[in-house]
Amino acid sequence: MSLQFDIVPLRKIPPFRVIGSKYSMLRNLLKVMKENKIEGSTFFDVFSGSGVVGRFFKKMYSIFSNDNLYFFFVLQKALITLNNYPSFKNLKLHLDLSLTPIMKIQKILQYLNNLNGTEGFIFSHYTPASKSIDGIERKYFTEENGKRIDSIRVKIEEWLENGFISEDEYFYLLASLLFAVQKVANISGTYGAFNKFWDQRARKPLTLKFIEVIPSKFIHKAFYEDAFQLIKRINCDIAYVDPPYNTRQYIANYHLLETIAKYDNPKIYGKTGIREYTEKEKSVFCSKKLVSNAFTNLLKELKTKWIILSYNSEGLLSKEKIIDTFEKVHRFTSIKVYEFPQRRFKSQANKERIKIKEYVFIAKVII
Question: How far apart are CA 115 and CA 132, in angstroms?
Fold first, then answer.
């Protein structure tokens, strides 16, 4: 199938605050694909994260989207796999039956926004209330917003358990909650730490927002799996690889979003209330000892015609090492690398601009 440049406009891709997001790189990826005349009908986003790449391309390809963290899987289900607005036909909230799906969703979000707060897990451990419960004052959320998160999260789970909403409807509402949480979290960058003083946005009331569904003629699938297991089952035309590039595990940086998404009352510890996590939730691409072999194995095992690899100049592997790995695998032709200038902010408090580069490697698989 010839490449059709029917991309989703950037204004319809809600950015999500996460390290390594490719939101600012989407146009560059498209430019590189056009230049290399990359063709196909299936696109495998191996490390999808918040799903911006899959959403950008969902009108051009059938997307296989994957990540090993559950909250990312939730976002992908809502932003990529949905091609039509969920109907919420089994949810009885005395809604006008003549309402359009969009109007119905807006009414449901309004209902959730108006719930009375609940003193649940988030309130108890991630607001100043944690001082009397855990002996540590955590200021991720105001007490009011902590209660709002708990009440909304409990209600969504209750609806699913009682059969009032489908899985698609469940993930849509959870994704709306995760986006809302991002807007009021009292953090500078990640959830590895909270701000000592309250950020102005953290004082605003948490509010669920409407998420636009992008229609597509393709069927899309989201996975919550280890990439090395999934690549054994996925055949695709284009594999997009955007692995973690530094030593900090995503599950440590975004533990609180994982907890809100799962709402599983995990054991937590330390000043930040980090949840216990397993080997499944860790990435070998964050290990200095394991990252080189991980790249080699991934390039050997991917069942694809084209590989597009994104990496950062601050990553554990150098540009030269990655090119060398491509060459040693002996299954690629036309290996190219592009460099795009990026800017990194140390934090919101210290906006010192540091020049870095985003690398995009292109390689065609020898058939």
Answer: 25
What's CA 257's distance to the chain center, in Å?
10
**Residues in CB range of 218: below 8 A, 6 or more apart:** 41, 58, 59, 61, 62, 63
Identify residue 113 by its one-letter amino acid code: N
Average pLDDT over residues 36-47: 96
Is the per-residue pLDDT at 3 higher than 70? no
Task: Please state the pTM of the whole predicted model.
Answer: 0.94
User: 63 - beta bridge partners?
Assistant: 43
Read off φ and ψ for residue 333, nearest 5 degrees: -130, 160
Q: Any idea how long the chain is?
A: 367
CATH superfamily of 10-83+215-244+283-365: Vaccinia Virus protein VP39 (3.40.50.150)
pLDDT of residue 344: 65
Task: Evaluate whether 68 touches 249 at the Cβ level (below 8 Å).
Answer: no
* CA–CA distance, 113 with 269 (Å, rounded to integer): 30
Instruction: Report which DSSP code applies to 147.
Output: H
The bridge status of strand 306-312 relative to strand 221-223 is: unpaired
Tokens for 319, please give them: 């540009």
Alpha carbon dihedral 107, 263, 49, 189, in 10-degree steps, equals 90
Q: Please report, for the chain, the start and end positions of each structural domain, with discontinuous segments joined by +.
A: 10-83+215-244+283-365, 90-213+250-280
Strands 332-345 and 353-365: antiparallel
Q: What is the largest CA-CA distance in the chain?
A: 64
Q: How many CA atoms lie within 13 A of 67 on its CB side?
A: 23
Q: How many CA atoms lie within 13 A of 9 on its CB side?
A: 3
On whether the CB atoms of residues 202 and 183 are closer than 8 A, the answer is: no
What does each C-alpha distance from 206 to 90, 203, 349 come to in angstroms? 26, 9, 22
